Amino acid sequence: MVFCATGLPLQSHHLIISLPMLTSLYVRHFAVVEAAEVAFGPGLTVVSGGTGAGKSLLVDALMLLAGARADSGMVRAGSDRAELAAEFDLADLPAARDWLQREELDEDGGCQLRRVIRAEGSSKAWINGRPANARQLGELAALLVEIHGQHEHQALLSRSHQLALLDAYAGHDDLLAQVRSSAVQWRELGARMRKLSGGDDRDRRIELLRHEIGELEKWALPPAELDELEANHKRLANAGRLAEGTAGVVELLDGDSEFALRRALGRAHAELGKLAALDDKLTPLLELLDNAGIELGEAADGLARYAQDVDLDPERYTEVDNHLARLHELSRRHRLPVAELHDRLAALHAELVELEGAGDALEQLAAQRQRLQDDYVSAAAGLSGARATAAARLGDEVSVLMAELGMAGGLLRVELEPAAGGEPDPQGLERCELLVSANPGQPPRPLRKVASGGELARISLAIEVATLGKDTVGSMIFDEVDTGIGGAVAEVVGQKLRALGTRRQVLCVTHLPQVAAQGHAHLRVSKHSDGDSTRTQIERLDAAGRRDELARMLGGVEITRETRAHAKQMLERAQTA
């Protein structure tokens, strides 16, 4: 089954400007789903269905594709494996494209995540058709989707993500880049200074370098000389065979035997000379034999001289053999091919010069490092001020939104605390913690410690709306964000989700008609049984289907004309709001 969640036509002043990041999701033999493929469009897509129908299966599938732990209970009864796959459009996600390129998993600007879960409990995963591990799935998924609700996979619970979100909300990218650059360079210079001023370690290193340089200067050779040495070794090692062999070839060419080539060639020349006297056409061939005789004689003479001159010097062979043995020993010690030892000598020379001149170098590095630290302190102070201002503003905005979302008296406070250590840190002088209180009189607690899944989802929604368009994640998933609310608050939640859908792709699993009416597209999940097996079906609803589904959500199993009329009004109001 293939369903396209493209939604209803909108008025021109309500055009969706978000792009579809998650373009399709495919599941097969997953839980109670036999097979389904859903194509997603931009904006807010709502998912509804009866109790126990499996509305959250889409969310569960995405979480598994994001690296969540799998178990055999997720495989449909009677099947040997479950298959999940999702495709993403990365046109608006440069961070994800860069990650794929770094991991060498990129594929024409697109991205496909695939996972297979076997009935015995094992699973395998692929990114763009290449095998991937859970770490890779998690890192990539964090750049693609953000899941809010009663789940563990929530980027907003990470303190590093909270700080990044505050920085994005404040829009001080230049200050942050200055802080990061100064801190990184400061650390790099520190590493160089520690290497140069190593005390006893430095003295020992200098002594070792001098010893290694002395050995390499004695034995290491540039490429041309190394080739000549190896050729000499080969020649000296086989000197006896070369002398004996060349003498034997001379005997074959010009020896005393009647079968020697030069004697046979002489006989052939004499016989052809007689024939040439009878026919002039043979004269050119006779000249060829003349030339062959001359070349044969030169070859025999040359070989005879070579055989006499072959170096049978055992001492020279021992010297060359010892040189090569020392080279191979140095090769093992330096863990380099013999041919690269000469280049190693140059590198060790450079290091020795640097260490021996460490005094002047350290003074220069220390002065440079102090300038970097001054730059860091200045930029970090500016960043801290900007963060403090943005933190107060973000807290106020989210607190107002929390009240609108049914948490009257609740508040969010963005707490900044000094970073540990005191050295220049690429993230700045402070760390961030989002503290929330969902009800009046309750002290604010870290967002990651809020117990209620529904409250956490609505708080996350408030933060997302307040920071609309500030983070880089393309698709946001809200699972049962409307738990524990109803009436006007539910409609506000739906409106906020719809507003979020104008800037980001949003998928929301809901049981409230007020939220479902705000969707740009609507998927219905239903469960069917024939007595022997149970299947879940996912279908995209047209205008009439949406009206009937909202009527069901409003009035239960029995749908009346009044509930249909009410549902139609809700849809019309949402489309023109």
Automatic annotation (TrEMBL):
Q: Is Nucleotide-binding found in the keyword set? A: yes
Q: Which Pfam families match?
A: SMC_N
Q: Which residues form a coiled coil?
A: 338-375
Instruction: Note whether Chaperone occurs among the keywords.
Output: no
* InterPro entries noted in UniProt: DNA_recomb/repair_RecN, P-loop_NTPase, RecF/RecN/SMC_N
Give the residue range of the signal peptide. none
State the UniProt keywords alphabetically: ATP-binding, Coiled coil, DNA damage, DNA repair, Nucleotide-binding
What is the role of this chain?
May be involved in recombinational repair of damaged DNA.
Please state which protein family the record places this protein in: Belongs to the RecN family.
Name by which UniProt lists this protein = DNA repair protein RecN
